[in-house]
Amino acid sequence: MSSLIGRSQSTRSKNDDHKSVPKHRFALSSLRGIQQPELSKKLYKLIKSENHVIGAYEQAGKESQGVASQLSDWGEATEDESLSDISDKLAVLLSEIAEQEDVFAQNLEESRGTLKQIRNTESSVQPTRNHKAKILDEIAKLKQKEPESTKLVTLEQELVRAEAQSLVAEAQLTNVTRQKFKEAYDLRTAAIIERAEKQILLAQHARELLSLLDDTPIVPGEDRQAYANELAAREILNDAESSLRHWTKTAQPISSSESKLGPNAMASHVEPPTTSSSTVAAPATTTTASTTAAPVSTTGAAATEPAFTAPAAGATTTEVSPPYPTSEVTTNAALAS
């Protein structure tokens, strides 16, 4: 909870006309949209739009606090003791309600940061897709122009490796996307619930304050009864502070398998492939290159263990096949069969 209620029982300006300078959220990253890979462009736009939303919540909170201060100043200017006291304490609660908008904006920023992890993974997968597409395109062109070219063998070998890398990258992408999507919107919806519940608590105490104001009509020349609810109004503020201090989260946790996700964005329970006695046949005129695919890193740290294990075609033993597609899982089976 904000310390606003505990620090002061009033929001009156006390002739202080100083206004805080609003934050400017512009950054050079605003110019990077056109440089985003095709795969991550849509999420990049969503994250950028969220940035504007967060700024709007922050600004709304500041404007609302300003309005609350003006309410207190107006109540004092009425020279009505009851109205002056009630409006001042009401302004304190309204200011605290506005403060929740800033807290909400901070929680949205955390959710937005989680979405960035998906965007970064999408960006890292795009080159893998592009590389595979480029090789396929080169093979198609060469088959049309020089169907007997020996270069086809080399390109087909590269395609096998590219397909292995693609399988790993796509698995990492779907793992990160699903897990971080749940995490991001878990944070967002929990923040919505927290903001709503806290503002409801404050609004309910604000309504209690309003009930202390006697609005019984009087006739000309009649005096109103002396205001006697100052202590009751102060107690309502204390109760509001206590309610916020003892508020606990009510949002039920969302189930997640995050603990099963390894540091290389692959299932942590998958055993690394073991050495197999089987080998991949290669054309007599060429040497088969190593085709172990390096996982795409999503955390900046290099993965040290292969993440893809495919069963050997027609296998009758417990041996593990090489970590690249066989003739059963690739459309280019010339080198994998």
UniProtKB/TrEMBL annotation:
GO terms for biological process: eisosome assembly; endocytosis. Keywords: Phosphoprotein. Transmembrane segments: none annotated. Residues 272-319 have a biased composition (Low complexity). Gene3D superfamilies: Arfaptin homology (AH) domain/BAR domain (1.20.1270.60). InterPro entries: AH/BAR_dom_sf, PIL1/LSP1. GO terms for molecular function: lipid binding. One of its GO terms (cellular component) is eisosome filament. Pfam families: Pil1. Residues 1-24, 248-337 are annotated as: Disordered. Residues 1-12, 249-259, 327-337 have a biased composition (Polar residues). This is Sphingolipid long chain base-responsive protein LSP1. It comes from Dissoconium aciculare CBS 342.82.
